[in-house]
Design goal:
The structure is a homodimer of 419-residue chains. Chain A folds into 2 domains: 4-224 and 398-411, Aldehyde Dehydrogenase, Chain A, domain 1 (3-Layer(aba) Sandwich); 231-374, 3-Layer(aba) Sandwich (Aldehyde Dehydrogenase, Chain A, domain 2). In chain A, 44% of the residues lie in helices and 21% in strands. Chain A has helices at residues 4-23, 27-43, 45-61, 66-72, 76-91, 130-141, 155-171, 188-193, 209-218, 241-253, 269-285, 294-299, 308-311, 327-338, 351-360; strands at residues 99-104, 110-117, 120-125, 145-149, 179-181, 202-206, 231-235, 262-268, 289-292, 304-305, 319-325, 343-347, 365-370, 387-389, 397-399, 405-416. Chains A and B meet through strand 2, helix 10, helix 15, strand 13 and strand 16 of A and strand 2, helix 10, helix 15, strand 13 and strand 16 of B.
Chain lengths: 419, 419
Amino acid sequence: MMDIAGYMVEVGEQARAAAAVVARSTTAMRNQALLATAEAIDAARGELAMANTKDLDAGRENGLEPAMLDRLELTPARIDTMIEGLRQVAALPDPIGEITDMTYRPSGIQVGKMRVPLGVIGIIYESRPNVTVEAASLCLKSGNATILRGGSEAIHSNQAVAACIARGLAAAGLPEAAVQVVKTTDRAAVGELITMPRYVDVIVPRGGKGLIERISRDARVPVIKHLDGICHVYIDSHADPEKALAIAVNAKTHRYGTCNTMETLLVDQEIAEDILPLLAEAFVAKGVELRGCEATRAILPDVIAATEEDWGEEYLAPILAVRVVDGLDGAITHINRYSSQHTDSIVTENYTRARRFITEVDSSSVMVNASTRFADGFEYGLGAEIGISTDKIHARGPVGLEGLTSQKYVVFGDGHIRN
Amino acid sequence: MMDIAGYMVEVGEQARAAAAVVARSTTAMRNQALLATAEAIDAARGELAMANTKDLDAGRENGLEPAMLDRLELTPARIDTMIEGLRQVAALPDPIGEITDMTYRPSGIQVGKMRVPLGVIGIIYESRPNVTVEAASLCLKSGNATILRGGSEAIHSNQAVAACIARGLAAAGLPEAAVQVVKTTDRAAVGELITMPRYVDVIVPRGGKGLIERISRDARVPVIKHLDGICHVYIDSHADPEKALAIAVNAKTHRYGTCNTMETLLVDQEIAEDILPLLAEAFVAKGVELRGCEATRAILPDVIAATEEDWGEEYLAPILAVRVVDGLDGAITHINRYSSQHTDSIVTENYTRARRFITEVDSSSVMVNASTRFADGFEYGLGAEIGISTDKIHARGPVGLEGLTSQKYVVFGDGHIRN
């Protein structure tokens, strides 16, 4: 039997040593490693397909669900996307070493902040092997070493991808331990990884809510996490009805399975009678099932009754909870109680209400007259996204390269001493 | 017997509710509360002295050490400092609501970041009752609610201070639960406080290393912490000897008990023979005991031999470890191994070595030709300091008001939907 704890300490030590080398590597070296990895993946399509077939066969034997098998599959199109992603990350500006806020202090010292890598980042994810490349590339670009622990059902695919990354790192003269994929499928490895603050600076779990809750509960290392996406659109009585319809329909139906999809629609009672029938018509045309509060059902008798559970539900499906609220106060009260603090939007032409909504709704993205679907690292211009944080500490909302960095103070003097 | 868990949940619920009110309070209201607290403290000098006498008497009975009794004492001068501190915090700019980085995206939406409070901050500290006011004022200014848990030996003093804060909050129309001092001295209250992520967003422990390690180990809530201050000054062969002497002496002898005091001096072997005798003379004149490596003792035979333990020791005393190193590489290797990643400084006139030191030393403050004693929120212009973080996540180095805040994304559209 393998000594998992001993193995993980070894992985951790190697990662820590590699992190120091990556931290002081040049922008050019890190970009070269990313581009060389892209080439290595392109050259290893056969190898990747074989490894992936092993995982798929084993998955079928073990009775994996079709949705899981689909996520596991490395199609040629997905490999293209991985390659394209690496090239995009290489093209992003290097966040590391940026010095900002440099000012002279009355003492004569000059003080500023320099952006630096976090160190070693642990990524824990489920079946998608393409996450291996996505996560590793963002961590490497931001000057960090990475320890990746993918789902056991993707072990062969992940190892094959890891081999390509190792070739890319070697081509750039960077240590292969800068990106390590844990070689064991033993679950104990996860337990070790999240309790090694000496070797791991932060954990980013990516996957279902169960995984993320378990990791957050047991971790002894800071976790950047995303839990639910229970997002709201509130249609105010001063909304432009055309904008309201367009935003509500887009926020719900643009994609059903994403975390920034609207799950509950709130409508100001003053305009409920006018706008609810139009909304219902649009949603029914799109095949969306509505679940309404009593006031909603008074206007739309065909709508199913919503229960208390509906307000806290992340459907990720063509289902929408609808509630009539008593103006802006009712909307804010509902949102601050049921929202997962992910993304909430108001539709209104009223300046004061927009200002109040922006200030009083405590969510990672607050919007005026825009679809919740915009809450996304690419749409926000971060260039990339490792995830969307529903935490408040360190990183909130879409997390790009900057979320994988820290800042240290730099002080320049000329023999200055403190009096 | 008191139901500690139940009591702490009540405290947490009240803090959470108060945090929402404080978060949307105006700058003027929060400043008014701070100034009214200053007045209340000034008016309650008799009350404070009586409560403090109770604690001091009990402390003497329980055989508290003189140093502890000194920290516990609320002298008139310390009360003046508390009042002055409140006025200074009131005069600081309000960090909350600041919107930055507002840009238009190709989709047409306008995206920026708004600075927001963290929510509820738990402060755990030891004997000094003045921390109650210091910490509460910074948390309130930054729009947060606070739960304070001071040392049991200061319970009467802390409750008296809390009563003044409550008067200040009431005068400004803010809820008294915005600042709560835990009313029980039962240690179980700390255990509850650090494991209530539902009610507490971050814990800031202030005190000895033992307390901070214990809290970090057991917390289920993010912790902003400060462990050791093992700070280095490296005197490079290209140093200006005059600057080197001034900085080394200041870094060690300006104050012995502070975390940014130099604990180990590193000297480039190329200049060791020239500069070590001058340094030794200066330190001996100040009464500092030197503990040197073999090479140091070859030059300064009177110096005590340093052991491996000395390199990792935070003396907080007139003792200094001295090591001769093999140039910049030797210095960086030593620092990255033994430094507590707090503050490290190089003395050099060499541009390339200064640049390398700044980049390759992974500490929260890195300095060129300046005394480590400058690593301080006031010296850096933060206006205030809740502590110095030796973590990398969220806040690194001196933590001012900004470290007690987060940022949320704000998105302005005009009916924008995602395609």
